[in-house]
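Dear colleague,

Thank you for sharing your sequence with our group. We've completed the structure prediction you requested, and as agreed, I am returning the results in plain text so they can be pasted directly into your records. Please verify that the sequence below matches your submission; if there's any discrepancy, let me know and we will rerun it promptly.
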Amino acid sequence: MAKRTKEQGVLALAEAEPIQDLIKVERNLNSLGFFIPAKKGKPSHEERSRVRTIHYPPREVQGRIMRQSATIIPSPEHGLPTTADRDKYMALMKIVTDAKAKSGDIQNPVAFTTYDLLRHLGHNTGGKNYEEVNQFLERMTATTIKSENAIYFHKSKVYQRDIFHVFDRVVLVGQDMPDGGKAQRNHVFLSQWQLENINANYLLRMDFNAYVSLRKDISKALFGHLHVWFYASRCRPVERRYSELCQLLDIRRWSHVSKIRQILAPSFEELREIGYLRDWDVVRSSDGADYKLVMTAGDRIVGVLRPRLNGGVTPGNEWIGAEMSSTVTELVKRGIRDGDARRLLLDVPKEQHVEDQMEWFDELLRRMRSSIASIGKSNPYSF
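Please find the predicted structure tokens below.
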């Protein structure tokens, strides 16, 4: 484990090359936008009973366009799961990862002590933290997910329309076990879809050390999504519409770019400090109707993803990609700035052959110059 030190109130990793503590997290819950930022103060009744629906971009499945959404329905007593619950869920996934490495498939129930879960997060074991763990387990069991093609079953290769829970049942320390005895540890019965996907290895590799070093809600919310996005792009730059990001993260949408940067900058800079982002920017979308976030991968997340990319990235060029790099070079030769060229290429569909278009443009330009030269020779006073 890398030694951790407190610096300026932020938990920092002390080594120049941080040691990875890789865990594996089930993909669906990471991608749904299940957790919301924590609110200051005690939530009101309206906040505790708020039902949240998230609409995702349409997906093509077997030649058909599939619309996806998830509705998160809380128990009025507990409210929606927050960043603090995300922290504890990540610690639970570390326990699950360690158990799976030892025994193979995971079986219900997953047993653990509150002390171990808090220790993984670096939290003290005071009575308040123990009670918060109990609340986390109860909230995760009580929260309902209504899936409209949003939950994917890896084994059967289908997106489900159904109603689910994350935990089907929880037995806390001291409560009665099914066999009649008293529970000496917490026992979590994972939902069938989650158990099936974990055992089918429908998982995301994440650096737990990197996660626990984060302190901001938006940073933690983005952390898992960055793994999905950069894996899909093979560590090339990714972009996300600002409006879609706000819905996914459950944050307020602002209309002015200066305010957007002001709100997002602390979290994006924190991700850059831990090596998960190399650079980021907010720019106007190509249709002018929205803004978009443009992000390039940092060395640390590339180190996590590289083993799964089968050599698809090259050292020193992870966030560019050889094909994109050569196209950028050609556009720069034609007078387009490097940064503008990269952003322009992110808006180009994959089936659009930019190199062919550049060649055609060069040919048109050559013909225009030849025509102008011919006119000038035949009539030197024509201009």
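Summary note from our side: The radius of gyration is 25 Å.

Kind regards,
the structure core
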